[in-house]
Amino acid sequence: MAADLALLIPEIIVLLTIVFALVAEMLRLPRIALGVTLLGLLLATAMTLPLLGMDSSVFGGTYRIDTLSVWAKLILLPATALSILLARAELGGSDREGTVYVLVTLVTLGSLVLASAGDTMLLVLGVLLSGLGAFALVAYPRDDRATEAAMKFFVFASVTGAVMIFGLSYWFGASGSTLLSDLARLETRPVIASVGLIAVIVGLGYKASLVPFHFWAPDAYDGAPVSIAAYLSVVPKIGAILALAQVVRDLPLSTNWAMTLAAVSVLTMTYGYLAALVQNNVVRLLAYSSVAQAGYFLLGVIAVGASPLAFEAIIVFAAAYAAMNLGAFAVVMATGRNLDTFAGIGRKKIAMAVAMVVFLLSLAGIPPLAGFVGKFLLFGAAMDAGFTWLVVVAILNSVLSLAVYLRIVVTLYAQPAAEGASANTPMPLVKLVWIVAAVFTLGIGLAAQALLGSL
Amino acid sequence: MLPIVSITLFLPLLGALLVMALRKAPAPLVHGIGIATSGLTLIGALWMWSRGVNETGFAQLEELAWMPSIGAAYRVGVDGISLPLVLLSTVLFFLSFIYSVKVKERPHAYVVLMLLLETAAIGTFTALDAILFYVFFEVSLVSMYFMIAGWGHEDRQRAALMFFIYTLLGSLPLLLAILGLYLGSEPHTFDMRAWIDNPPLEGGAAMLALIAMLFTFAVKTPVFPFHTWLPAAHVQAPAAGSVILAGVMLKFGTYGLVRFALQMTPDSFRDAGIVVLVFGVVAALYGAFAALAQSDLKRLIALTSVNHMGYVVVGVAIAALAVDPAVRATALDGSVLQMVSHGLVTGALFLLVGMLQDRAHTREMEQFGGLLKVVPILGWSFVLAAFASLGLPGLAHFPAEFQIFLATLRVEPVAVVVILGIVITAGLYLRAIGKVFLGEPREQWTGMSDLNTREVLSLAPLLILIVVVGIAPSLVLDVIHKTTVALQF
After folding, report:
1. The model's pTM
2. Residues 6+ apart with CB under 8 A from B182
3. Would you write out chain A's pLDDT as a tens digit for each of its 455 residues?
4. How far is it, in rounded angstroms, from Cα A50 to Cα B375?
């Protein structure tokens, strides 16, 4: 038991952080809450480092401490810290500022549970934990739009969650165990295995905004504060994708799960970019883009077990995605939601515009940026697993994505519509976030070995 | 030994970083840094040239671990095919920087992009790792997109976007082929030398990889019917951008055709050789005829590029089909030399059109006339470059095209119809010279000033090199030939 707890030190630190931050908030000390949260997240990240290379589990195999779970912490905890900086810049000084930090950290904890799940019950726990906080965060502004967005989000999550629990009960009934590692027992019962699989795709697919379970995402992101949208598009999504990888690595091949996921991936990529193409609201555009990126993640999930590249690909792309997406949202925060407000930024704020170009080109997968390395590994993994046709589809979608992202790039360097339209006050915290994100987006591309070598 | 390839490769990048750091620097200083950096890079390339190439394989290798767990590394080096192209690139960039001193609009960004483009170009030719190659190949696209969009002419946004999407769409199949070659190699590696020594794919897989690569390089070269991005991009690009686009970036396509398609899937290339040959012949003839129909001088020159690059494709296809190694070497010698000659000649022509447009603010041939009397230096320079472009003996294109045709005659005599292209280009250039430079000068142009020092400095080296390569092609051919005779496939 003591050894188990030693492996859980990062999670325990996050939990204590939540408690202390909540206490600080109750004492009306939001600055302390902010400090505690940031410190706790960084400490938890640091305490994860000794676990690198670990392949173990705790609590009788229900909670995994493996490559995926350790890297989930190393990616999601810093990403959470950056999101909190964004939230501070956007919501700082508002009424219940401290609760934002508490809820965000709670959602992160849920996402970590998802990424480490070795048991179906922990999947459910992770989905609930990361869901509950998220609804409240979306509704935080308490205006009509936010409330409506949170309501949609909530209803959607409840239904998909119920479907997932219902389907998981089949797995439990047939295998007699809630452990994922016992799923191999379903080898001879493909129908039941498939029912459970579809339920898991519904439940985790909503969280990762896979098509056709993505409908909440654009509305929720648009209704929520931009910093919350940035956070939701990164942390819970990566948690859900990693959870999916944890599930399929134990799933018997007779369910044809790879082909099912491949179909979802095609739908997700294509629909995401097609819908993004017609958006004039940059937050909605990035929302659809993040839907499409989830489809790329699936290329790695499909290759789990079939290609040694799969985990590397998922993790590198997760790190890349976290950096570039947070960066892009940070620039949106500093500029505005409407595409028109981007006009002429390239001539006024040179550095920020260059950073935005870096994020967008990285999202499109242009070398040598982080997004390219991630997608390249994903393509390699999927081809290695025999899904060449899927890679072809993904590559064609990359062309489509270019049209999406270049719309913003072109606007950045176009003539401004009207002078003084975007007279934003400088936001040092936001600037810090996009600088850090840009450094990582460039750095992961060049120093990918540092990531790969330590996997 | 000093890692001179890497130094040459990253010097422009360092210059770009320096310019970025000096955000307050005045324009002349920024242009000075650009010229100095590209000058040093040129010296680096000359140094590489003096070290020479090996009888077999690649020379001047420099390696550094990058992603060992997936077999990717930083690997650079040169052989007789890439070294002349590196030298050509550095020459063209250096002269473009001299010509670009006139750019007053956002000089910092301009110089940074040009320097970035230079690193990308040298990197594409020297990379011996497929990922590294792809990275440089794509970075060049991004820089060129911003060059056209930022400093181009009237319709630049549309042309830039079309260029970017078209060529990116073109380069993605290459990514697929690279992944296929990677997964086919044992042990898995991205080392291009390993792929060349032991082609990793065979049979149907190799043919699919070849088709993907051919598509990519056909768009880049460009080969009819994938050339439609070229006239728009060229016409809209700033003059120096056109020089780089035609002089350096089109070579990525034909270089890739040799390096990847021919060397990594040789058997499939031999099977598909006739198809490639047909595409080459059609491109060469189409380019000539299409150029004949133009009234815009810049568009005309852009389309002759399709013609000249078509000859290169013909040469490479003949090399694949040839059985006799001597003929094969002749065909490849001609193709590589043709790339160099085209870079020099088209570079000069685009500079000249740029100079003319700076003065007249139009590119329509009909509006000129008799300029030879008004601006004799510009006029005679154009005549020289145009004669070189139409393949006059004693000038750069002649020895290259001669060898290509010679090899074609030995292997596939029917394909020699491609010679018709020369007749047509001769006609169209004579017509252009007649309209623009001969006759009586028009009233409106009588005040036109002749070339100034900056323009002469940027142009003269190209004209000298055109003559030197034309009279003594062995200066370049010796290096090329060393590699082409030893190629095993």
Report:
1. 0.84
2. A380, B71, B130, B188, B189, B190, B200
3. 677 888 899 999 999 999 999 999 999 888 999 999 999 999 999 999 988 888 888 888 889 999 999 999 999 999 999 999 999 998 888 888 889 999 999 999 999 999 999 999 999 999 999 999 999 999 998 899 999 999 999 999 999 999 999 999 998 988 888 888 888 888 888 888 888 889 999 999 999 999 889 989 999 999 999 999 999 999 999 999 999 999 998 887 767 888 889 999 999 999 999 999 888 899 999 999 999 999 999 999 999 988 888 998 999 999 999 999 999 999 999 988 888 888 888 878 888 988 999 999 999 888 888 998 899 899 989 988 888 889 888 988 887 888 889 888 888 877 665 555 454 556 888 999 999 999 999 988 777 766 666 66
4. 75
Phi first, then psi: what are they for A133, rounded to 5°?
A: -60, -35
In whole angstroms, give the CA distance from residue B194 to residue B197.
5
Residue B29, domain member (yes or no): no
The number of distinct structural domains making up chain B is: 1
Q: Of A253, A268, A288, which residue is a domain's last?
A: A253
Is B465 contained in some domain?
yes
- Judge whether B205 is closer than 8 Å to chain A, CB to CB: no
A420 touches chain B (CB under 8 A): no
Domain range for A455: 256-455
Q: Which residues from chain B sit within 8 angstroms of residue A307, using beta carbons?
A: none
Probe site for chain B from A397, A399, A404 (most B CB atoms < 10 A):
A399
CA distance B185 to chain A (A): 12
Q: Report ipTM for this prediction.
A: 0.73
Q: Does B221 fall in a domain?
A: no
Domain count across chain A:
2
Biggest CA pair distance of chain B: 72
- Those of residues 125-154 in B touching chain A at CB distance below 8 A are 131, 134-135, 138-139, 141-142, 146, 149-150
Min CA distance, A37 vs chain B (Å)?
A: 35
Same domain, A63 and A89: yes
Fill in the amino acid letter for B442.
R
